[in-house]
Fold these 2 entries.
Entry 1:
Amino acid sequence: MEWETVIGLEIHAQLATRSKIFSGAATAYGAPPNAQTDLIDLAYPGVLPVLNAEAVRMAVKFGLAINARVMRRSIFARKNYFYPDLPKGYQISQYELPIVCGGAVDIVLEDGTFKRIGVTRAHLEEDAGKSLHESIAGLTGIDLNRAGTPLIEIVSEPHMRSAREAVAYLKKVHTLVRYLAICDGNMQEGSFRCDANVSVRPRGAEKFGTRAEIKNLNSFRFVEKAINHEVARQIELLEGGGRIVQETRLYDADRGETRSMRSKEEANDYRYFPDPDLLPLEIDQAYIGAVAASLPELPDQKAQRFMSEYGLSAYDAGVLTAGAELADYYEVVVRDLGGHPKLAANTVMGELSGLLNRDGLEIGDSRVSAHGLAALLKRVTDDTISGKIAKDVLEAMWLEGAPADAIIEARGLRQITDESAIERAIESVMAANPSQLADYRAGKEKLFGFFVGQVMKATAGKANPARLNELLKKKLGG
Amino acid sequence: MTALHELSVAELSQALRTRAVSSVDLVHASLARIEQHQQALNAFISVLHEQAIGEAERADARLAAGETGAIIGVPIAHKDIFCTRGHRTTCGSRMLANFISPYDATVVERLREAGVVMLGKTNMDEFAMGSSNETSYFGPVHNPWDLERVPGGSSGGSAAAVAARLTPAATATDTGGSIRQPAALCGVTGLKPTYGRVSRFGMIAFASSLDQGGLITRSAEDAALLLGAMAGFDERDSTSVELPVPDYCATLEQPLKGLKIGLLKEFFDAGLDADSAQRIHEALAVLREQGAVLKEVSLPNLPLSVPTYYVVAPAECSSNLARFDGVRYGYRCDNPHDLLDLYQRSRGEGFGAEVKRRIMTGTYVLSAGYYDAYYLKAQRVRALISADFERAFHEIDVLIGPTTPTPAFEIGAKTADPVTMYLNDIYTIGANLAGLPAISVPCGLVRGLPVGLQIIGPHFSEPRLFNVAHRYQLETDWHRRAPPGFA
């Protein structure tokens, strides 16, 4: 039987506020355990939560960015369960009335077509602390630094049909939250993480299969691997005559598999009810308008602009706008260069990305600045050096930190554009290779490349390639 | 000269500002009386001798420096539900018997800034859950009018302490009648302000949507003096209301001519003790003589207030009390062998029976499959009750009726049957469900026991409530009567 995979994601994005969602404690990552907690985070008797307005603004930004409805009235609810890293014994979240309802995110599939993934809702909630089972022998430590950190939980529709689509959607949301500067997107530190609801059904069936929820997915690679593993597990089980049970499964990255955490029957009854300590959150149109006016250019808009303004392909525009910093870098290069957007795109996506990947750096940490790269490309467009030489110069700039012109001068890399010099080189190559010349003239035209190579060798690669081609063709033709 | 303990807050204010007495003298006198009667009444959980004297010295210094605040140097007691920095704050529970609060409740902070001196922390039903002060881990409080009887609850310690003239005033909290009912049973004045008028920050939560801090005093005038310092918006409590605090004393004496009083039909039902009803009617006659107009009104949904309350309050409490888990502070069982054992035994041993009963009730009504039938339905009824009140206040200015169905009952009389106990709050719960202010004032005795007259007003009508109660107290002396043996 042919199976169809159905995936929905629940993404948790930590909002980049300075203080927590209901207390004044700081949210910075990496402080000593429990250093960033106040009485509210510790759930002392008598303390009360006060909503952080900045967290609301960020959630509204997200809602607007995915063309969702920002609800005029939303309600905070308590999700009740006992766990030591949940000091109040309940998590303040939103349940029946979330702040954001019904948006969509477009992704590009491998074949270049667009697919729209629906977002059911996004709601504000607080993060829990952490239980540290390893650090103290025989005991469990509790670190409440993370407790009360604001999150938006972004719940998608079950619109994805493969692990690849799920990753594309996750990456797109990742891009969006960083564009909006509402989340640092750091997956290692857990500021951006997701759970996947995965089921399979016979292709063509309307009814969804029973789903499993996979938790603990904190990298794009794990999301893909975990989903693929889970899909294979479910298909194998069904084809063997078994049935799927609704359950929560944990992804074990070391073993590359998912394993059962708890079944539906063991699931908590969270006893949600409206939090009486917090008034309903009321948002008016003027506020929404002000937030909308503050939105930056979003990735899709930017990609469209790159296509129309710079003549880039959809693919290139997509790659260059995947991160706001990368897009900004690119645009600085083009501006400095005064045009040549394709040359800039190819260099940024090609050589520069290669160097960044090689050294494991983000664009923000690039050893060659956008201005530096533009200065280099300017030497290509004004024929000072060839594109090929430029690659070497970039590598040298990367390693030595020197500007392009200094490297070009120091190494004597200026290309030869003087026709007589090139002609002299051609003539000596022709004289040194009489038999090849005879073969070429007899019709063996692919020897043209051989002559180009020889002349380049003779000029140490500095001959202007266009000029060389032109002159060589003329000379060889006799 | 009148003994110091017989003076009202208003009189003390005068005496302190004219330097006729010092705050230190007052505090010494109060501490001596507390010590003298603690064994018989058990009204206090903690008495803060040294700190109180220190605060009194500072108050005297402020007065000497010419400060004119009306309540500088006045001693009061705080219900042990308000967190007080550096001191044990128990909420009447074993769970917090060892809990030293690292911070002050807003109410405590504001009153301290206004210059009052904290004598100690008063006894209360455990986590404010009770109507008789019998659920306290620190033992029952005895009613000064009859030591065999309950003082009411949950603010039983505050009411008994004020009635027995141990302190001129005490803070209290009211979730379903916990200020007004003990005030009525002890023959003192009890004010529950409008929900949101007084910050709940630092007041240990029982049922967040119903809890409201207030006062137990001997007179409405005293309550008016103190409320001005306690009330007001607090950015640390999102449910506190951003409205200016009026001068509650300015309007105390306004004439009552033309005041439209609604007689709550549902309050004069078969459950009301006939002699108590008689005292209420006598009080109404006093008000009528001053020009008030009486009109019977009906709030048809009000009889549903007890079942509604006993769904909403336990639901909220089941969640509010989840933080007491033995992990970070408070009671922790010995040698837990795992997490579940830690939770089960810490909570099992740390909470008393009534608290556990309400946590279980609340957990049940919020559970999947029961939420709609109980919690949601109760919220709908609550809205209907609020609407009933709102309709009534279109026609009348204040509602008046009894505070409780009967005077104080004997200790132990109702402990076996929680529902009978819950019915003691039948007349007080409505104001909590609707968030309305209400005051109880003493209006006579039945078989030697005090009876309370309850006045309920629209939201933020505290000035009107004080005015009606004060005019009544100008014409009567029930509020001046001390229990025999405590004069």
Entry 2:
Amino acid sequence: MIAGVGESAYARELDLDDEELAVEAGLAAAADAGFDPASIDGLCRFAGLEQVDFAAMCGGLGMRELRFFAEFPFGAEAIAGAVSAAAAAIEAGQATRVLVYRSLTQGSQRRRRRDAPPSGPRPPGPARAPRGDGAAFAWTAGQIAPAVSFGLMASAYAARYEVDADDFVNALGTVAVTQREWAADNPRAILRDSPLTLEEHRESPLLADPLRTRDLCLESDGAAAFIVSARGDGVRGVEILAAKQYLDPRYRPFSLDRDDLHRIVPPEAATPLYSAAGVSPSRIRTAQMYDASTFMVLQMLEAYQLVEEGRAWRHVLETGLGPGTPLPVNTAGGNLAEAYVHGVNGFVEAVRQVRGDSANAVLDADVALFGAPLGGGVILGAA
Amino acid sequence: MIEPNPTERGRPFWDGAADGELRVQVCTDCRQARLPAALRCGRCRSPHSTWEAIEPVGTVLAITTVRRPGHPALADAVPYRTSVVSLGESCHVPMLVAQDAPEDVAVGSRVAIGFLPVTDEQRIPVVRGHASPAHGDEEG
């Protein structure tokens, strides 16, 4: 089960480094679970991205021993892998309490880049792409920033389902506006005091058509963590009904090497997740979807079978994702409005929704979905 | 502008581009074409392949206009259009769209591919505009 969740403070910039933030989040998760942090004996982190190593966590949490450590690839996609592997390790008797953590300081890194003394004029002539056959194509085509990949996929989606340009802007804008509404009642959310209107969204600068600045996630400082433990360990845990890692190289982040560019999630990914959980998509009471951009939320509503394929833009316009709707989504504000913690903040919110102690608690939210773009998902249920 | 830095496996594409030829990696056993270059054929797993020049036409799968440079070398290039062009089942190629290509190049357009110099020696593929009608119905 998920025994406890926690986070550091979230802000555009904090005076704490990655390690301090990760330890703060880990201690908060232990306190939430009612555990002595020294009793944590397993750790999971995001492979290649997480800067805080296991030694720092062992020291910071005062852990007596580390009996299980594993890393999982990519961003939010790592979460389902970590949950399933941690649960299996516990089942196998390898560890008893596994902390999964993610710490980011993108906000202050961005400022440091901005404040750095100019490095002098760029040498004349063309720049060189990083070595690699994928990068050779992407970089020469000017497809470097994540927003460009997302814009390309959004263009493929709009064309495939013949979405009118105005409807599409309004649907994307509605996702952004709704998540700000959720953030307004979440004391942790960085943008809690920054409401957004559809007009402001529409007037925000285009980055890569059809995506605008207000379609993209925050860059912020903060860490989030949660503890996987055995059933019955702790008093406020929620059940892991299913956790499935799913990796398809054609859909790896920013990859455009496939025919179905209107999809971010492989179409086969969600079915085994629901089968393993023993629930149908209609049982999901609230969904927390990784939202590096508003477009991802639309596509993932379809990929996780919550809305019919090709209809998410219409669902968002006609039914909505906000308070009082049949399927509230990203109820803490998500990576667009709460903080950018690579989806771990969304997972934490899914746990709180099932427990009923979210700042935006959805009535009877006894089954919740956390979904990531590559298809790795977790379904949580009330204990 | 940015120049490619391919591995030895992928270099034949860029040698072809330098010569104004659109080359794809073709499986010697089942004839499936592929890009980017890969160790084995995605269909029959054969490790045997060759490089062949194909007619420089394709179909736009996705297209966007980039308004902010993602790299200092692109600061003078924005706004520019960029796309993903299918050259067949297993060939999906990110490609710039030429500044003078028609405004109505869109997802689904059959397009002609040309080559734009980035250095004295290297050219990169670009979408030039709509394919001529002779190429228009190749994919049915």
